[in-house]
Specification:
Length: 463
């Protein structure tokens, strides 16, 4: 039979990444991510009818973001007991992310059921037990190691430069006496970003499944963004206010800490108090620091000189809610990183409530702000917002830094693909809305004469 590839997520959108490779001997699932967004997206977070978890032989996981690993516990819940292959840091980060997801779902369900006692009780799609069962199935692999994951299917992971442990994966698949190489890009990081090593491109493939999140544009150069960040920090220190940074726990938090450490080391900014006000960010940062060997040459050189933790001796973690509340009495200047990244809940909310009306305060937005989120309203320059039922005048300065993306822009995506282009593979563009994947598709066709596929959710392709 021909090798089959089915798209169970990230087809025409950026969440829910999941693909199934099927031969006459084996079935391997690549990622099983959560769909994120409102309304109907939530109903998509289940095992698709066309996917029988008990017939999967193995799973390979590209990285630990929720939109790539968030549905995995559903496999354990359905009785799957096969292996899940991924890198050691991804095992740690994905475990953290899935545990947090189970916890949040539980809290959400409780809140809903309290509010709507007359309605059918809401239930989490999985619980902490399912997550623990799933975590027990992880098998660590090293970058470049070749491992047989299922009969006739070997996998090789290489650095994707997107988050700690992230990988692009090549599956070498034997079927009917023939061998085909299928490359899954995973999420590809931008070249030259601090901390992480750059992505490594594969050179040989018959079929490529490639992300296209920013297939339509390049980001602002990173050096410019770093300079802007330094300016904002200096300004906040001078005004002696609080600098609030809404963050997601993994990636940008560690990037900002690294940049702050450098500023302190170079004495471009005097040391001042920094608070990591997110239990998950605290855990993620610990995991990052455990894997220095995977960091880029600049980072390693700096750490050899002396540990960055020495530069960051004004950094405090505030794990408990009481610690977090106590920050209200902390005098400025102080930088506070707290979740949620889009100001849709979490500890950042009480900091915003206390500081938005203060002209000496600053809010620094470093990540994407979804439509309708409080973060988006602040970015859009609204002068009054309603929080916790009260109207708050926005007198704080709102800064937006768009250049810290963890995703490659168009040029870096084309560069990643250039190594594969000579082999003239078939290409499917995923993990991108039409805005991202259509321009990239055009570019690949124009430069290499390769017509790309734009798969739909649930579509199966024969290789
Ligand atoms: Zn990602």
């Amino acid at each position: 039979m021909p090798i089959k590839l089915t798209f169970f997520g990230a087809a025409g959108g950026v969440t829910g990444s999941s693909y199934l490779v099927q031969t006459s001997r084996a079935r391997v699932l690549i990622d099983f991510g959560m769909f994120q967004g409102r309304g109907e997206k939530e109903d998509m977070n289940k095992v698709p009818a066309a996917l029988d978890p008990l017939k999967i032989d193995a799973v390979v996981l590209t990285h630990g973001h929720l939109d790539h690993c968030g549905r995995l516990p559903l496999l354990a819940k359905a009785g799957y007991r096969g292996a899940i292959f991924t890198t050691e840091p991804t095992i740690q980060l994905a475990s953290l992310v899935m545990r947090d997801s189970a916890h949040l779902q539980e809290v959400e369900a409780e809140r809903y059921n309290r509010k709507h006692p007359e309605k059918k009780p809401s239930e989490p799609i999985y619980n902490a037990k399912n997550v623990d069962e799933l975590i027990a199935l992880f098998k660590p692999v090293n970058y470049y190691q070749r491992v047989e994951v299922a009969p006739g299917i070997r996998a090789q992971f290489v650095e994707a430069g997107h988050m700690l442990g992230s990988a692009s994966i090549r599956l070498t698949v034997e079927e009917g006496g023939k061998t085909k190489n299928i490359v899954f890009s995973g999420d590809i990081g931008p070249k030259g970003a601090p901390i992480l090593k750059d992505s490594v491109g594969f050179h040989q493939a018959d079929f490529v499944v490639m992300e296209s999140t920013y297939g339509d544009r390049d980001h602002k150069p990173l050096a410019e963004t770093v300079t802007e960040f330094e300016g904002i920090v200096k300004c906040a220190v001078a005004s002696k206010g609080k600098l609030l940074v809404p963050v997601f726990a993994i990636g940008r938090t560690q990037l900002l800490l690294y940049l702050l450490a450098q500023m302190f080391r170079n004495r471009t900014v005097p040391k001042f108090p920094i608070f990591l006000d997110s239990p998950m960010a605290i855990e993620a940062t610990k995991i990052y620091w455990e894997h220095m060997n995977l960091f880029d040459e600049d980072f390693q050189a700096l750490s050899r000189e002396r540990p960055l933790t020495q530069d960051l001796n004004t950094l405090k973690a505030t794990p408990t809610a009481q610690d977090s509340m106590a920050l209200n009495d902390q005098p400025g200047p102080a930088l506070i990183m707290a979740g949620a990244g889009m100001c849709t809940g979490g500890r950042i909310m009480h900091h915003l409530r206390h500081n938005l009306s203060k002209p000496e305060a600053c809010v620094l937005i470093v990540g994407y702000q979804g439509e309708g989120s409080l973060g988006r309203r602040l970015v859009d320059g609204e002068k009054e917002v309603t929080m916790f039922g009260e109207k708050i005048q926005v007198k704080a300065t709102i800064h937006t830094l768009g250049g810290f993306s963890a995703h490659a822009g168009q040029t870096d995506l084309m560069d990643w693909f250039s190594y594969l282009a000579a082999a003239h593979p078939r290409v499917a563009l995923t993990h991108g809305e039409d805005r991202g994947r259509l321009p990239l598709s055009k570019l690949i066709q124009g430069r290499y004469g390769i017509k790309t596929l734009l798969p739909q959710l649930g579509e199966t392709i024969e290789l």
